[in-house]
Amino acid sequence: MSANEDQEMELEALRSIYEGDESFRELSSVSFQYRIGENAEYSSQVTGSSRS
């Protein structure tokens, strides 16, 4: 499986996990935000790895 196929599968899984969760935002296909706490602001955190 190529790196692009792996990334697409990971993206599909992520969307499936957080589907309907109002605390989750997908800003782009590589950028996401999740609100933690009841009155918390959205906070950005970078996770994952860079593939060439």
Could you explain how this protein is built, in words?
This protein has one helix and three strands. By secondary structure, the protein is α+β, with helices and mostly antiparallel strands. The chain has a three-stranded antiparallel β-sheet, with no helix packed on it. The mean pLDDT is 80.
Summarize the topology.
Blueprint: H1 3-18, E1 24-28, E2 31-35, E3 42-44
Antiparallel strand pairs: 1-2, 2-3
Task: Give a summary of the structure in a few sentences.
This protein is α+β, with helices and mostly antiparallel strands and 52 residues long.
Rg (CA only): 13 Å
Number of strands: 3
Could you report the average pLDDT, rounded to the nearest whole number?
80
State which percent range the strand residues make up: 25-35%
Counting helices, strands and paired strands, the structural category is alpha+beta
Order the strands across the largest sheet as they lie in space.
Answer: 1-2-3
Number of folding domains?
A: 1
**Oligomeric assembly:** single chain
Largest sheet: 3 strands, antiparallel
Uncertain segments: none
Shape estimate: elongated
How many helices in DSSP terms?
1
Roughly how many Å apart are the termini?
A: 15 Å
